[in-house]
Amino acid sequence: MVVGDFPIETDTIVIGAGPGGYVAAIRAAQLGQKVTIVEKGELGGVCLNVGCIPSKALLHASHRYDEVQKSENLGVIAEGVSLKFDKVQEFKQSVVKKLTGGVEGLLKGNKVEIVKGEAYFVDNNSLRVMDEKSAQTYNFKNAIIATGSRPIEIPNFKFGNRVIDSTGALNLQEVPGKLVVVGGGYIGSELGTAFANFGSEVTILEGAKDILGGFEKQMTQPVKKGMKEKGVEIVTEAMAKSAEETENGVTVTYEAKGEEQTIEADYVLVTVGRRPNTDELGLEELGVKFADRGLIEVDKQSRTSISNIFAIGDIVPGLPLAHKASYEAKVAAEVISGEASEVDYIGMPAVCFTEPELAQVGYTEQQAKDEGLEVKASKFPYAANGRALSLDDTTGFVKLLTLKEDDTLVGAQVVGTGASDIISELGLAIESGMNAEDLSLTIHAHPTLGEMSMEAAEKALGLPIHTM
User: Fold this and answer.
1) Same-fold call for 8-150+275-345 versus 163-272
2) What cystine pairs are annotated (predicted)?
3) Is residue 117 part of an annotated ligand binding site?
4) Distance CA 24, CA 330 (A)
């Protein structure tokens, strides 16, 4: 302990102010805890600053630019359409600024103490927060670790001026003429789509047999078709070997079908996954148990192997989703406050903001089969929905998985415009144990995309109205 470093007492200390950390801090404070939150970067974490939010702003702008050039069939003839990418970046940053400023206001409004610096555990009930000038010790009753993750850097692709991660891609000041994306997961597919809309010539190199491996093939097929129509080249079973930067570009070497090939681009975006930020907290010295890949082992209450230290978000097993982190945050805060709470991921949705959007919740058909569940799939097409027709966007479907024995809803997949919003109702239905009849009897406004949930439920009951 440094001279003059008198420990500050707090009930709960939260490390990290992303969608896991700031939610945990607010909920713990609402439940009567004296809370301190520590953040070494910007409030809002990766999600609000260089992840979910800015990427969706960029995607929205790219979609508008692409759409306005393809509206002749609607009778909308746009001449002289131009792109001012600096204005796109200004819009993106304005969205980020509003949300991060809102997080600070919410924390202060809930009387959470905000501390800037890096945290390092001293023992089970104390840690030190350090910045460039000083160090301060905090004694706590409980701690919640929500430090998030960072992009994985692969061999021979050292991040620099031309080899960039998702943060670098979001902060580009120009639209690349040619962009190579290494990794066809949700980040690579979303950003690849955005820059293709802006006019980039995009090549995606994916090591697996298909892109978007977390979704069923029948869901990803329309996405791949849409990408190809935009001129995106998708190379699967491709091993990225090296990237050589020049002053004005980068040469990427990869191997596919047993042959080594090269491709030149302005930038190469590496999106092959993320690594948990658990390596500089002093957790090993405390005896915290780890699972695979540097993830922290936790129980159903988000509790680590040390009873008063909790971990949530990207640093624990499961999908690295912002809403998963926020959900776990509330559970951890409630447990600390003495409530009987634990995680249940059955209603956890996964969304990819490609074109069309992909969303799923609950079991997939394969997962249901693996669990020994007998299910039936009921699908309703966007092409039969009045609202989708009026939007001139009829690609996709809503699919429900229901148990054969009693029609209970156990899974849902949505492909198409608005999928990210439609999935919430289906997640609620699964979480609440509803069956197909419950959905079919729920009156849905017309004409809306949401009607397709009702239509698919009627199909599950063998009583479809608007499809055979």
Assistant:
1) yes
2) 47-52
3) no
4) 6
Question: How far apart, in whole angstroms, are the C-alpha atoms of residue 57 and residue 69?
Answer: 19
Q: Is 411 annotated as a binding residue?
A: no
163-272, CATH topology level:
FAD/NAD(P)-binding domain (3.50.50)
| Claim: this prediction has a pTM higher than 0.70 | yes
Question: CA 439, CA 444: separation in Å to the nearest integer?
Answer: 9
Q: Cis peptide before 19, with omega less than 30 degrees from 0?
A: no
Q: Is 149 annotated as a binding residue?
A: yes
323 labelled catalytic: no
Find the mean pLDDT for residues 115-124.
97
**Selected catalytic residue, list 60, 444, 446, 466:** 446
The tens digit of pLDDT for each residue in 378-415 reads 999 999 999 999 999 999 999 999 999 999 999 999 99
Contacts of 78 by beta carbon, 8 Å cutoff, 6+ apart: 68, 69, 71
pLDDT at 246 (0 to 100): 86
Token pair listed for 180: 């190579």
Q: Is 190 annotated as a binding residue?
A: yes
> How many residues are present in the chain?
468
| Residue 2 scores a pLDDT above 90 | no
CA–CA gap between residue 453 and residue 414 (Å, rounded): 9
Domain covering 8-150+275-345 in this structure, CATH number: 3.50.50.60
